[in-house]
Amino acid sequence: MSEARVGPLVAGLGRAIGWITNAAMALSALGILASLVMVAYAVVMRYVFNSAPTWVDDSVGFTLVGVVMLAAASTLRQGGHISVDMLTDRLGARGKRRAEIWATFSVLLVSLILIVNGWQTAMSSRAIGISTSGNVELPVYLLELLLPLGGVLMLLVSLEGLLRLALGLPPAVAAPAQAAPIAIADAGDEVMVRGAEDRRR
Amino acid sequence: MTLALILVGLVLLLFTGLPIFAGLALFGGALLLATQGSLGSITEVIFGELSRYLLVTIPLFAFMAHVMIRGRIVDDLYGTAYTLTRHLPGGLGIATIAACTIFAAISGSSVATALTIGSVAIPQMIRFGYEPKAAYGLVAAGGTLGILIPPSGPMVLYGVISETSIGGPFMAGVLPGLMVAAIFTAWSMLTSGSSSSRVRREPRASLREALAALRKSLWSLSLPVFVLGGMYAGVFTATEAAAAGAVAATIVAALVYRSIGARDLWAAAVDASRTSAMLFMIVGGAAVFAHVMTKMRIPQQIVEFVVSMDIGVFGFLIAMMALLFVLGMFLESIAIILVTTPVILPVMSQLHINPIWYGILLTINLELAQITPPVGMNLFTIKAITNAPMGQIVRGSAPYVLLLVLGMIAVMLFPQIALWLPGTMLNVR
Questions:
Q1: CA A184, B116, B188 angle in degrees (round to 5)?
Q2: Which of B21, B136, B282, B310 has the smallest number of Cβ neighbours within 10 A?
Q3: Splitting chain A (201 residues) into consecutive groups of 10 residues, what average pLDDT does each group show?
Q4: Which B-chain residues 111-150 have CB contacts (< 8 A) with chain A?
């Protein structure tokens, strides 16, 4: 099938995957705001009402798993995950393409591990009927399912990436034109530096 | 020997350009398959590592910093520092370091500090007669204070991995951070204040000018004091301090500066989510790697090796710092913390090395990693801001590599520089 004929198909697929990952990212951002509210609520309850809620710490921890798993695919689609590109940057066009295929394939493998191993672990927890220990008693399997969910989202993005590479198309999302202005850890550095380069141009 | 092979294998795999989280997870998974024939419940390991309450400190501090920048609360910081120091020899250099120090107490990121302060400071320094390479080096090095002065993302991660209270390393970073800032300042004064220097000096600001400048930066100066002061006074835990800071920054930006709306807050939340995904996916991958290291009894083998070598605390620390320095030239700092810390914790316990002290030495080494080629994120940041030749930036940063090593040696020889404050205020020793 020629590139011209598959182009609209890939574009449609890209739009669908973009919509799904953006929706997941929105849920993740809500998780950040929910965590903020929960921690602030705990502080107020402790100092104003002298009644520290016991469920906040566990709930915030579980929410974080959701935040990470829901945001990972969108971050991947925007090329936001950190890699060591010192050598691959010096490769020629063909070498770079091979390195990109390998990098995308490696994420696909991790996604499959998250899906298969995560599903088996969750179902095993469900069969035994384990609940979370501590102050919040929830069925563990429901929380553990967040990992295969994140795996499915990343699998979609990596399959789209491999398809685009096979067809010689550019990445679905270009590197961000405006960098995130700050990140608490230096993990977001490459995105920020890239953004600064773009601003200079 | 096994560990050396594993480390070399991992570094080679990461050099192929795959995302670090995937490299760690796949390498750890392959080792698990090779040693025990199955992956076991590795997603359970990842889930356990990611659901730690303390980790949420990082996105909450990130959210606070996003709000402060988007709300333009930090815009006047550099101007204020310059007004107060412009009459001193190397006044602009001092202002740059001072602004970096204060921004470090807000951001917790080296690159964010270099990027934010550098885009204002570098053009100004060059205009006032500084050699370009001196300006590049100063900002690249000043930016590294971002991870030594609390809050600090890498310190939170180290605290979680080493099961040390986050408040301990945070407080332990204050004096070494100020000491390093003072060393940088002294160097800047020395090199730009000499009689042969072409650096222009300005007249001293009047009291009225100084007060006006301080008033402009009142909120950007007081929010870190509120957050860190609340934490050190025992009012907040580290996570609560991050949430309180985020709420306070939002209130100041919305009500005092009137510079932020719901759309900006949403963008800050999305940015914090993205930071969490980038960072904590690596944490998940590193959890798999650390799990297999434990299964293979690698930490115990290192303990036995170090004990048999009888190199003592300093011998071990020097060897570790040399290894971290080399790794820092090639790897990203988060990966270095997550790969090395779990493996050497038993050795530290065996040698009775205070984990907070080691954490500060590790953080100074990670600062070095930001300004040593070929992979130094602050070098790339300066390149991105200025488009200067990389060789010039590296040469400008070289003196600061030596100065940071000097700072590291001082903390190694006098642990109290790091341990006095947490010992006195938190009774953490």
A1: 110
A2: B310
A3: 67 92 97 96 90 88 96 92 80 90 96 96 92 80 96 96 89 56 43 46 41
A4: 111-112, 115-116, 119, 146-147
